[in-house]
């Protein structure tokens, strides 16, 4: 057993499956890797050299564009219109010269205030240039400089500036601005392998233009983990943690603060040295892998059988103890099965308790029904009247039971009990006013209060305020305190008005028994019934703990 534990320690099923896959594949991969190492080294050296050359070629293309813009600025700076201070003529001449181009010229003073902008008609009120730091840098250096990419105020797009500082006091600098997407037309991946991308990066590390599968929008920060390493005039960058299986080449644009970068996946090649060596070595390695897989499969099979045995004993109704195996997940399943067997035993005990409780409640309901039928039988003068009276009372009792069943006999809110029982008299619902703070009733209180409400409403519909359209009923409850009774009390009142004159009955029927004797006994309280001429008044004062569910 110790030897088995040594070779098969506790581990997850995934670990065992990975171990089996590794046992089969790793020797083969190692064998092929020996053949690929030298080839990969040669290919990698060639790829690095070509990548650096491609980045340099792209930098020359961008350099020509920037040099063309600088030449244009020098020519414009020496124009007679600008020398004579005729900005309107200079604006017209410049606009005409650049009509077929995607560039625009801006003249600014030392504060950065735009004196003219060929994007706008001459004389249009203009603000200061959006990129003041770039202007200040060029004026401080006295050289033509390219700015970082920024969002233009007028165009609303990403643009860049090439600034020529001047000694003229009025026109302190001339600027050529171009949309970054127009420069992007010069950035191409032609001649690069599939999957490679190219970009121009400004001094602050933001994308000026980009193309290729990994397209980056202008203004997007280039990976800050890479930029600090691009210090030479040109070269390559490779870091598996940052760019897995990828290579990056870069070149600084001479005389400018920008640089160009290209990057993409490193092509992998697979070449076999000899078929004979591959077949012999492959067969031997596959045999080793099969033997390893067989050993792993045998261990997993033993574990599954132990779990299956646990499940069978649990199905027979036993409480099972978890088995100890060498697979972590199997141990978790064994614990879960053991817990489930214990839970099932507890559930069976609860079911027996519920059945006992159901029998007890059924007996109580049958006792109540029997008492109700005996009382009604004494007062009924015909089978039809007895049947109608019994049906009516049973319907009220059924409503209470349905409420309790919907709440799994856990109690029902008082207002819901009132609403359910008064729904039996929809024609009189608008005549009844209900008020009081809601709370949850105990199951017994739901039945007993429901019986009383049903009798009060039935009596009112037949003889009282609800028998006429102008009649009104106010049903309310509130907390009360009595000095000689420290416990909390509730007072319910059913007050009728506007109905026919009330005459106290000469004998007590079933309804009177329910609303007086039964209600008082059920809630251990007192009931007052006043047959006032203007309407019946019923008042129940009971202990709150006999009604409210804790």
TrEMBL record:
Domain (Signal transduction histidine kinase HWE region) ranges: 357-438
EC id: 2.7.13.3
Leader sequence segment: none
Enzyme class, first EC level, given as a word: transferase
Keywords, in A-Z order: ATP-binding, Kinase, Membrane, Nucleotide-binding, Phosphoprotein, Transferase, Transmembrane, Transmembrane helix
Reaction catalysed by this enzyme: ATP + protein L-histidine = ADP + protein N-phospho-L-histidine
SMART domains xrefs: HWE_HK
Listed transmembrane segments: 16-39, 277-297
GO molecular function: ATP binding; protein histidine kinase activity
Gene3D superfamilies in alphabetical order: Histidine kinase-like ATPase, C-terminal domain, PAS domain
Protein name as catalogued: histidine kinase
């Amino acid at each position: 057993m110790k030897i088995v534990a040594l070779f098969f320690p506790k581990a997850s099923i995934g670990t065992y499956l990975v171990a089996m896959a590794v046992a089969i594949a790793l020797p083969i991969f190692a064998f092929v890797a020996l053949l690929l190492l030298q080839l990969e080294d040669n290919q990698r050296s060639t790829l690095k050299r070509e990548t650096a050359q491609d980045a340099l070629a792209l930098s020359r293309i961008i350099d020509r564009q920037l040099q063309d813009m600088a030449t244009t600025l020098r020519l414009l700076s020496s124009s007679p219109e600008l020398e004579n201070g005729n900005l309107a003529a200079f604006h017209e001449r410049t606009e005409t010269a650049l009509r077929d181009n995607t560039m625009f010229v801006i003249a600014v003073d030392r504060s950065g205030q735009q004196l003219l902008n060929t994007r706008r008609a001459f004389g249009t009120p203009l603000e200061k240039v959006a990129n003041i730091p770039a202007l200040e840098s060029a004026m401080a250096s006295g050289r033509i400089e390219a700015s970082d990419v920024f969002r233009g105020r007028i165009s609303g797009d990403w643009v860049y500036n090439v600034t020529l500082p001047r000694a003229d006091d009025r026109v302190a600098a001339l600027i050529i601005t171009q949309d970054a997407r127009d420069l992007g037309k010069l950035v191409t991946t032609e001649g690069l392998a599939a999957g490679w991308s190219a970009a121009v990066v400004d001094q602050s590390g933001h994308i000026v233009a980009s193309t290729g599968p990994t397209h980056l929008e202008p203004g997007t920060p280039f990976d800050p983990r890479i930029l600090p390493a691009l210090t030479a005039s040109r070269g390559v960058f490779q870091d598996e943690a940052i760019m897995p299986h990828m290579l990056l080449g870069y070149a600084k644009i001479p005389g400018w603060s920008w640089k160009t970068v290209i990057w993409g996946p490193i092509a992998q090649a697979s070449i076999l040295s000899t078929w004979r060596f591959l077949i012999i070595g492959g067969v031997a390695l596959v045999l080793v892998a099969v033997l390893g897989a067989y050993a792993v499969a045998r261990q997993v099979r033993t574990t599954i059988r132990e779990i299956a045995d646990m499940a069978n004993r649990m199905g027979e109704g036993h409480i099972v103890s978890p088995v100890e195996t060498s697979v972590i997940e199997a141990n978790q399943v064994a614990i879960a099965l053991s817990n489930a067997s214990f839970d099932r035993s507890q559930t069976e005990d609860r079911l027996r308790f519920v059945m006992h409780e159901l029998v007890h409640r059924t007996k109580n309901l049958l006792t109540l029904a029997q008492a109700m039928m005996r009382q009604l039988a004494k007062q009924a003068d015909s089978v039809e009247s007895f049947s109608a009276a019994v049906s009516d009372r049973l319907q009220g009792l059924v409503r209470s039971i349905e409420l309790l069943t919907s709440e799994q006999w856990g109690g029902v809110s008082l207002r819901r009990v009132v609403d359910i029982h008064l729904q039996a008299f929809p024609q009189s619902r608008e005549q009844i006013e209900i008020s009081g703070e809601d709370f949850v009733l105990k199951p017994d209180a739901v039945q007993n209060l429901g019986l009383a409400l049903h009798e009060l409403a039935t009596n009112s519909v037949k003889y009282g305020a609800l028998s006429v359209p102008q009649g009104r009923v106010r049903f309310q409850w509130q907390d009360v305190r009595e000095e000689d009774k420290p416990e909390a009390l509730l007072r319910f009142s059913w007050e009728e008005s506007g109905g026919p004159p009330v005459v106290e009955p000469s004998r007590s029927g079933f309804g009177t028994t329910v609303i007086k004797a039964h209600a008082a006994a059920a809630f251990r309280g007192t009931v007052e019934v006043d047959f006032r001429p203007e309407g019946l008044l019923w008042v129940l004062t009971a202990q709150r703990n006999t009604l409210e569910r804790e």
